[in-house]
Description:
The complex is a heterodimer of chains A (110) and B (112).
Chain A lengths: L3 E4 L2 E5 L4 E7 L3 E9 L5 E7 L2 E5 L2 E6 L4 E6 L8 E9 L7 E2 L3 E6 L1
Parallel strand pairs in A: 2-11
Antiparallel strand pairs in A: 1-3, 3-8, 4-5, 4-9, 6-7, 7-8, 9-10, 9-11
Chain B lengths: L3 E4 L2 E4 L5 E7 L5 E8 L3 E10 L2 E4 L6 E3 L9 E3 L8 E8 L7 E2 L3 E5 L1
Parallel strand pairs in B: 2-11
Antiparallel strand pairs in B: 1-3, 3-8, 4-5, 4-9, 5-6, 7-8, 9-10, 9-11
Amino acid sequence: xxxxxxxxxxxxxxxxxxxxxxxxxxxxxxxxxxxxxxxxxxxxxxxxxxxxxxxxxxxxxxxxxxxxxxxxxxxxxxxxxxxxxxxxxxxxxxxxxxxxxxxxxxxxxx
Amino acid sequence: xxxxxxxxxxxxxxxxxxxxxxxxxxxxxxxxxxxxxxxxxxxxxxxxxxxxxxxxxxxxxxxxxxxxxxxxxxxxxxxxxxxxxxxxxxxxxxxxxxxxxxxxxxxxxxxx
Lengths: 110, 112
């Protein structure tokens, strides 16, 4: 079983819809990252959070440490939001780098 | 402000050839790492470094070498390329693993 599980694997939405991508993890963590990988391949960090909620524009990320779960929400989705969204965790007490989920491919149709 | 610069963007190698993927960052980050990305598997850690002169293995280190002689540079060497090393490679850096990570643009490597 992967230490970081994302759902759904693929998601197709109509422009304007509210989107939720989920991330569950099975290890203790000190931080969780949400990343966006553009169709051209580049990876951009969207959020880094260790508790609570963060908001940037139409993007909202939440984390529940007790339930070992995080969600990424996109409000008023747009075709330019089409990308792969990746959840990654930094395990507690480990010098290792991040452990990644396999990603969620989001397609927003006009 | 260049961030993380990774070269080359594309490379085709023959089985048995060796090559070096370059990664440089200008943010004075201590932590640097190399990942490979394969379809359906997500990013997997190859090697990482917590500072100049210090490197360690990740999940999939076999067939790869790294060194960290300076804070800025973290090259990844393929010793004898194999078709199983066909993948997209990403270099990343951060002040520490819990801080925001910055990624290079990726290298698409094909081994024939």
